[in-house]
């Protein structure tokens, strides 16, 4: 199958989203690799880290967000090279992952879920539903992802991935957008904090 790819700017000037006409992952699953060592499960991400200007790789359902670590390099010269690499790699049937990230994430969530009180568990489920239905689609449009980490005593902890992790507007989005939505819809929520913001 012929692969077509287009590049889409994200709110983070150092990140570019490469959208493919085929799926790399099932909907709702994504992986964020802040460095080569973290990318052990993804031959595709490892290859991308072979470009010396690639500082972070995020893979979601049908796109790859590349964050560059050399601000002086303009995207105009990098986009054709990355787009051609991704097209050739996917068309050749190169492996995206060694182990299915969906299975990996389920196991990790089960391990970190702990034993919250029943009430906290119900609140956490409401928060997860809101994030999945209202927040994640918007964040994915910008080349990133948000995942629920925990809820404890009014504080929601989330993970920001992909272009969100280094985005100058991530904190504003988190506080004025996500936190306001959750407080309005789930009165028990007092604040939202994020892991993965590197501003």
From TrEMBL:
<dbReference type="InterPro" id="IPR001075">
    <property type="entry name" value="NIF_FeS_clus_asmbl_NifU_C"/>
</dbReference>
<dbReference type="InterPro" id="IPR035433">
    <property type="entry name" value="NFU1-like"/>
</dbReference>
<protein>
    <submittedName>
        <fullName>NifU family protein</fullName>
    </submittedName>
</protein>
<dbReference type="Pfam" id="PF08712">
    <property type="entry name" value="Nfu_N"/>
</dbReference>
<feature type="domain" description="Scaffold protein Nfu/NifU N-terminal">
    <location>
        <begin position="5"/>
        <end position="93"/>
    </location>
</feature>
<dbReference type="InterPro" id="IPR036498">
    <property type="entry name" value="Nfu/NifU_N_sf"/>
</dbReference>
<dbReference type="InterPro" id="IPR014824">
    <property type="entry name" value="Nfu/NifU_N"/>
</dbReference>
<comment type="similarity">
    <text>Belongs to the NifU family.</text>
</comment>
<dbReference type="Pfam" id="PF01106">
    <property type="entry name" value="NifU"/>
</dbReference>
<dbReference type="InterPro" id="IPR034904">
    <property type="entry name" value="FSCA_dom_sf"/>
</dbReference>
């Amino acid at each position: 199958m012929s692969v077509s790819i287009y590049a889409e700017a994200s709110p983070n000037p150092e990140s570019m989203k490469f959208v493919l006409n085929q799926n790399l992952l099932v909907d709702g699953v994504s992986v964020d690799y802040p460095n080569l060592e973290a990318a052990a499960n993804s031959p595709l991400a490892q290859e991308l880290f072979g470009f010396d200007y690639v500082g972070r790789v995020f893979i979601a359902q049908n796109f790859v967000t590349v964050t560059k670590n050399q601000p002086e390099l303009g995207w105009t010269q990098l986009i054709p090279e990355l787009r051609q690499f991704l097209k050739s790699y996917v068309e050749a049937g190169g492996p995206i992952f060694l182990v299915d990230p969906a299975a990996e994430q389920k196991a990790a969530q089960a391990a970190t879920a702990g034993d919250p009180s029943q009430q906290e568990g119900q609140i956490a489920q409401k928060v997860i539903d809101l994030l999945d239905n209202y927040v994640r689609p918007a964040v994915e449009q910008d080349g990133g992802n948000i995942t629920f980490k925990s809820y404890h005593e009014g504080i929601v902890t989330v993970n920001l991935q992909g272009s969100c992790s280094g985005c100058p507007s991530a904190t504003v989005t988190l506080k004025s957008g996500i936190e306001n939505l959750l407080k309005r819809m789930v009165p028990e929520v007092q604040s939202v904090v994020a892991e993965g913001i590197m501003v």
